[in-house]
Write a sequence for this structure.
DNA sequence: TTGTAGGCGTTATCAG
DNA sequence: CTGATAACGCCTACAA
């Protein structure tokens, strides 16, 4: 491994000078600069980030904590984050928390031990001391807490939209699937939906779902029709559950959207490929990731940041699981 | 930030002693050990991994390079890797390569600058010098190169299976979708399938697909029926394309599986939720991730590793896009 | 404009 | 059994 010393030696200067050209700091004669640059290129030298990090007490690493990368919504966030971070020279240490506080703590711990310079987290525990006591900037993604920096989509609005659209298209016996109680955005959606339902005086039923996992989605779909066989409109807690509902409706011989309309949430990439393709409330996941990254970078690089809360708009994506508007 | 010095001070010993108890190295009197441990707990001290890494010239970080986390196959690999690594105290620095050599190089570069102790890569360029010149262990995942350590599923076998099963279920005008030319496993599948087709003397057509992206999947599905409207069996290059094919078949009024059978590849989590649910060749993605992590850990921690090539079995998952065997 | 030297937090060597 | 102390590779006063 090359070190700054080696470069200094073959450039015939001191390490301090090499460091100066490396960091474009302080004065350095144009000619010696050239010599140094030549040496660097020749030896194909790149500075050891670990040593840098030790000295500066901070690295170019940022910590990313997501509940479960296996849920199709999160890779999109991750991708948005990574794209933006990468443009700015930051790298990502990644962990799945499984919404498990202990695991989360453990990761935060090691993030800090590795001098991460900032962190993005989709945690269910944003209020915890761990976060408020952190000495590095944190951005909550798809989550919020008071006035902490955060990026999220307007879940309540999304829920309202879903209800409005499904009502406008003629469903009258609506079932709302309520996502996991401990996940804030899931509850926002739910609240938004029932708000509208109540305002319009439409009767509805609720199905509780306690997670967003693929494996359990099927069960809830079954439970749904088991309890409410004659429902004619389902507002699902996300696209995965919605997919399972389509599947189950098919199995029961229900026609979608004629007998039953379904609206999902998220607009994961596969939604448009389903048969029928899924009408859904779109969250701009990739953008959310980019924004979160952008916000964190600001927090890191600027001392004063005005807009620390970024709310992105959701929108109704009309596809084939809803009828044409009357 | 606490340092080992602070601990030493309040424990009334030298840093060397603290270091010894931290690393369980060398002798240390039981009583002083207790004092030190008490101090550590009291101050809630955790060692600075960066300093450790600098001294040891290697960290507890491993680099992970995946083509695109947005493709549902990869999160599963990632998850498998992470789970296993996490159990062993390793953390992951992650990057999307987009199958772009330059990006890949860039990441490898920074991985090394960060003293990663090993690397897992799903690269299309395993033969490149960058890899062979690396001084840290590398495991290729879902990829291979000569006798480099690697973990992958038996793609050729998978292709053969797909062809055998679809033939056994009565398709006679088969279309094989050939995945991206530069992706080895995609070609293996293709080869396996046409091998069987040729052996059995079945005529078939080929549709080229140049990527695995969601956005383009739809186009190939359209192209497929555009060119071969009366095909009665499709062997898709992966589950995403297969999903698009189901969708397009629906649109054209074809009944699946009566008029048209479809077999996918991968068995991504959503496959079972589709309508009809997708028959596919399953790759044990999560296990592949775990195995790759396990192999890398061995490579790191042991000096001699016997089985450096791990091939995992694929299997046919019978669902609703194929008919019952006759 | 350039070089010397001290320090970032740990570990390991070597006396004691 | 314990304690100085020299690295690890880099950056930044401070001198020259």
């Amino acid at each position: 491994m090359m070190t700054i010393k080696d470069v200094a030696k073959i450039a015939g200067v001191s390490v301090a000078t090499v460091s100066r050209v490396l960091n474009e700091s302080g004065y350095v004669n144009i000619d010696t600069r050239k010599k140094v640059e030549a040496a660097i290129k020749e030896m194909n030298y790149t500075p050891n980030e670990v040593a840098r990090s030790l000295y500066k007490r901070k690295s170019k690493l940022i910590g990313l904590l997501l509940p479960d990368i296996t849920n199709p919504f999160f890779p999109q966030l991750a991708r948005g984050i990574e794209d933006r971070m990468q443009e700015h020279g930051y790298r990502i240490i990644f962990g799945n928390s499984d919404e498990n506080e202990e695991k989360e703590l453990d990761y935060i711990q090691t993030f800090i031990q590795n001098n991460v310079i900032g962190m993005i987290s989709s945690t269910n525990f944003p209020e915890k001391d761990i976060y408020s006591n952190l000495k590095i900037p944190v951005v909550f993604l798809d989550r919020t807490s008071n006035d902490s920096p955060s990026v999220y989509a307007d879940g309540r609005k999304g829920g309202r939209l879903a209800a409005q659209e499904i009502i406008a298209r003629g469903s009258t016996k609506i079932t709302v699937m309520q996502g996991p109680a401990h996940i804030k955005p899931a509850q926002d959606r739910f609240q938004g939906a029932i708000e509208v339902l109540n305002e319009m005086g439409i009767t509805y039923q609720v199905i509780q779902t306690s997670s967003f996992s693929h494996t359990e989605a099927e069960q809830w779909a079954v439970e749904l029709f088991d309890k409410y066989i004659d429902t004619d409109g389902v507002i699902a807690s996300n696209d995965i559950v919605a997919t399972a509902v389509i599947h189950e409706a098919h199995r029961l011989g229900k026609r979608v959207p004629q007998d039953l309309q379904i609206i999902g949430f998220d607009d994961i990439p596969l939604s448009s490929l389903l048969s029928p393709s899924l009408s859904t409330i779109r969250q701009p996941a990739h953008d959310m990731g980019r924004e979160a990254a952008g916000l964190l970078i600001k927090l890191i690089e600027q001392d004063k940041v005005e807009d620390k809360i970024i709310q992105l708009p959701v929108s109704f994506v009309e596809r084939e699981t809803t009828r044409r508007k009357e």
In short: Chain B touches chain A through 55 residues (CB under 8 Å).
